[in-house]
Amino acid sequence: MNLMWLRRDLRIDDNPALIAALQSGPTQALFIATPEQWQQHDMAPIQVDFIERHLNLLAEQLAKYGIPLTVLTVPNYASCTIALKEFCHTQQISQIFANQEVELNECIRDRQILAAGLNLTLYEADVIVPKGTVKTGKGDMFHVFTPFRNAWVKQLQQHSIKTSSHPSEVLTHYQSIRAEKIVLEATKKSSEKWPLVSDIKKHVMPEFLQTKHADYKQYRDFPALKGTSGVSPYLAIGALSSKMLASQVLQHVPFILDNAKADIFCWLNELAWRDFYKHLLFAYPNLIKGITFSEKYSNLNWPNSNEYFIAWCEGRTGYPLVDAAMRQLRQTGWMHNRLRMVVASFLTKHLLVDWRLGEQFFMQHLIDGDFSANNGGWQWAAGTGCDAQPYFRIFNPITQSEKFDPDGSFIRKYLPELSNVPVKYIHLPHSYLAATGQSECYWPAIVEHSQARQIALAFYKQQLGAP
Ligand code: FAD
């Protein structure tokens, strides 16, 4: 008997480990819940709930093909070896198939399992272009995105995308079984507002490709519009395959790889960013230990005001776009990409709080929490990461608000206390509120923008010992 060990690959299609297991013989599936480890990794309760819902979907899909899915619960990764050993013994399993996870603790867990003599084979299912194959002329990992992306495109031009078969293509005889209900014993928060991936595949992605993909570049930065795909939660738990998405884009726009600067390439470019950060973590596994990518930033002595940090977390900075974004995160478990950049810049540059605290807060709340993308995004914002821009890019939260939420509709949605403020004042409402006797209804600005900007520049210069 074979075992398909499901991890962050909660899907039946384009799942290379599952197909390899099925091709090799009768298979059953297993998921190991590790609540203590998840907590240690700051996994958001909304993501745990989302995983539970997708496990139930997957259990039904697998049951159709006669594959039972069992869920074991152990505290942490260290306990996985014994649990797997026992399970393999009682179920007479001789081979374990799984898809690789790139994060350090996950790699250590897999090494321990191999060292214990279990027959585990790993496949790759989390990227479009294989990790470790997009390299500079000298054979190193790229440190900047654009040349990585160009080499990534070349690879896609040379080797067409091959997704794995569907179980229906490899299984000739099977008998359906009944799926048992799965309940994860861990802290959860309802993710019901996010449909199951079956809905995304059937309705959301086809509609996105037909009606929104071509205009993505034009609308993607406006948080009040639904200009982006919204697929990140599904990619983060592996319910969707990024390779499958890329393959659909290539079918939809066959010439798309001809010009990476064309507007139509813009969405695929985001999937390339996702790959970039996964390749980066693969090349530099210690990023997970909180190190700065750029070594010269490793010893910044952040002031880390707890008062500022809490105000940022709670959406009380007095900058409407920042506060509305933080409320979006807390209420929905998701935040628009433009706002992630704005709030991350605000925390690190305006408030001089260590990016690692923001990174952790994001993980604790995001339904799409993914270490590589989150760490990459935070280090990009703090200026400590893989970025062609130096530290002195500081987003102005007021002009960002004027540009990307021009009529204030996003702000009004999450800050109802400002719903009556005229457009002219919505981006920084304090003078209007004072003049109309409503100062009490909103927070004063926590710092003054131009002053905070000067302080940030001085901080970075002094800490880096720059002239
Ligand atoms: P779309 O705009 O439709 O893009 C399609 C897909 O491309 C996304 O689903 C995502 O998988 C990928 N993608 C898009 N932008 C990026 C990017 N900048 N970096 C890496 N991949 C990208 N994304 C996560 O999936 N998990 C995180 O934990 C995460 N944390 C972030 C933290 C910060 C500070 C920043 C600046 C960005 C972060 N991102 C993260 C990236 C990005 O904000 C989200 O992927 C995006 O907002 C998801 O919305 P969407 O699916 O509608 O994206």
UniProtKB/TrEMBL annotation:
GO biological process: photoreactive repair; response to light stimulus
Photolyase/cryptochrome alpha/beta domain residues: 1-128
UniProt site (Electron transfer via tryptophanyl radical): 302, 355, 378
InterPro entries, alphabetized: Crypto/Photolyase_FAD-like_sf (IPR036134), Crypto/Photolyase_N_sf (IPR036155), Cryptochr/Photolyase_FAD-bd (IPR005101), Cryptochrome/DNA_photolyase_1 (IPR002081), DNA_photolyase_1_CS_C (IPR018394), DNA_photolyase_N (IPR006050), Rossmann-like_a/b/a_fold (IPR014729)
Binding site for FAD: 216, 228-232, 267, 270-277, 368-370
Pfam families, sorted: DNA_photolyase, FAD_binding_7
Domain of life assignment: Bacteria
Keywords, ordered alphabetically: Chromophore, FAD, Flavoprotein, Lyase
Cofactors: (6R)-5,10-methylene-5,6,7,8-tetrahydrofolate; FAD
Catalytic activity: cyclobutadipyrimidine (in DNA) = 2 pyrimidine residues (in DNA)
GO terms, molecular function: deoxyribodipyrimidine photo-lyase activity; DNA binding; FAD binding
Note on how the cofactor is bound: Binds 1 FAD per subunit.
EC number: 4.1.99.3
SUPFAM superfamilies per the UniProt record, alphabetical: Cryptochrome/photolyase FAD-binding domain, Cryptochrome/photolyase, N-terminal domain
PROSITE patterns: DNA_PHOTOLYASES_1_1, DNA_PHOTOLYASES_1_2, PHR_CRY_ALPHA_BETA
Entry similarity comment: Belongs to the DNA photolyase class-1 family.
Alphabetized NCBIfam families for the sequence: PRK10674.1
Function: Involved in repair of UV radiation-induced DNA damage. Catalyzes the light-dependent monomerization (300-600 nm) of cyclobutyl pyrimidine dimers (in cis-syn configuration), which are formed between adjacent bases on the same DNA strand upon exposure to ultraviolet radiation.
Protein name in the entry: Deoxyribodipyrimidine photo-lyase
